[in-house]
Amino acid sequence: MRAIRFWLLAVLTAGSVGCGDDSGGGGGPVAIDDLPEALFATLCPQLERCGADVATYFGRPFDCAGGQAQFTNTDFALFDAAIDGGTVRYNGDRANACIAAIAAQGCEFDRVQRVPAVCREAVEGTIAEDGPCHTGAECTGESYCDTSGMTCPGACSPREPAGEICQDNDWCQDGLSCRDGMCGMLADAGDACNGEDDCAPGLLCGNMLVMDGSPGTCRALSALTTAAEGASCTPLMTLCQGALSCALLSITGGGGGADPVFDFECQQPVASGAACRVAIPDACPSGEFCAGTDPEAGMLMGTCTPLSTAGEACEGGHPLGSGCEAGLVCVSDVCREPQNNGETCVMDVECYSGRCATGMCAAPTCD
Questions:
Q1: Cα distance between residue 54 and residue 67, in whole Å
Q2: Mean pLDDT over all residues of the chain?
Q3: Does residue 123 fall inside a structural domain?
Q4: Second label for 289, Cα 20 to 30 Å away, from 82, 121, 125, 221?
Q5: Residue 330 placed within a domain
Q6: What mean pLDDT is predicted for residues 242-271?
Q7: Rounded distance between C-alpha atoms, residue 168 and residue 316, angstroms
């Protein structure tokens, strides 16, 4: 998710030019082990507001606790290991000032500098250009850690200009983002796009025709939610007004190499335990989902069912989600809490880091 990557880019993966004085940014020094909590406590309320209307509409509210856990077990774990290895020097006296400067950027974080200047005083990388690295925090100056090659570790490299290949935003120069694997400016309202991450904060890539690969147009949610009850609708093209859901009525055709035809209609939400259809957003009450549907198998009707808690059954691999409560993952058809690094696992999905190595959850780095 863009917000989680922002925290990483702004604080931990930026190269720096040296430590400043010992004056803090308010609240005193931040111990390295306390950095994820301090960072998320300050920025979560702000980032929840960035595109909050979109998150609410699609039923995907930002999970601050889950975001912090994922961050701690991925990018922060690499950063912490680099400090222990001596390739990064951390100045906790400047951490609060860095966090405050990031917060001051508001929702335009993808359009501004990769990192505020004061953050360069909190983190100092020691590896020069072309030197080996596992995280961008280890690199000096404006370099990032290029891990695109087949060798491990990667190499510190200058940030890429517009039009160059990238894997993430921190590979690109100030003001650029990684769009479709290439550094470029974020698209404004009315500009062409190929996915959500192409658009400026708060905009959706609307009217994107997935079937034939046609580009969409960056638009505000209010410009897409125009269809009234009973009117035809199409996800990410014409959405429904107010609390209405864009419900899938039927799927026809699709044989002989032809594309199937999907018929959607704006409908009222339904009650707890009631019959429901595949819909965007889900027509069921908060805390429930439309269970028993499977569009790929032609099963378009289901029943509003409470989301499963830890230890309860779930629908692993279902195209519309597993039915677990927020923060849980579906493992072998059972909802479970993700595991921290160092805890036992069998599959990658069990880990906050997304990596299960030799039976233990581990930070996502090359071996």
A1: 18
A2: 83
A3: yes
A4: 221
A5: no
A6: 89
A7: 29
What the block records as the tokens of 267 is 């409908």
pLDDT band at 111 (very low <50, low <70, confident <90, very high): low
Residues belonging to the chain: 367
Q: Residue 309's pLDDT is what? A: 95
DSSP per-residue string spanning 129-155: TT-EESSGGGBBTTEEEE--SSSSSEE
Distances in whole angstroms, Cα of residue 308 to Cα of each of 5, 69, 283, 298, 351: 28, 21, 17, 24, 19
Decide if 39 is inside a domain.
yes
In the chain, what percentage of residues exceed pLDDT 90? 41
Asked if 102 and 116 touch (Cβ cutoff 8 Å), the reply is yes
Query: 53: domain range?
Result: 2-142
8 Å CB contact between 82 and 135 = yes
d(CA 222, CA 215): 20
Are the beta carbons of 174 and 53 closer than 8 angstroms? no
Token pair for residue 356?
Answer: 């299960």
Does any domain span residue 282? no
CA distances from 362 to 33, 88, 132, 343 (A): 17, 20, 21, 8
Cα(316)–Cα(331) distance, integer angstroms: 7
Q: What is the mean pLDDT of residues 19-38?
A: 69
pLDDT tens, 163-203?
Answer: 999 888 888 888 888 887 889 888 889 998 887 678 887 78
Does residue 49 contact residue 61 with C-beta atoms inside 8 Å?
Answer: no
Half-sphere exposure (Cβ direction) of 303: Cα atoms closer than 13 Å: 3
182 close to 166: Cβ distance less than 8 angstroms? yes
Q: Domain tally for the chain?
A: 1
pTM of the model: 0.79
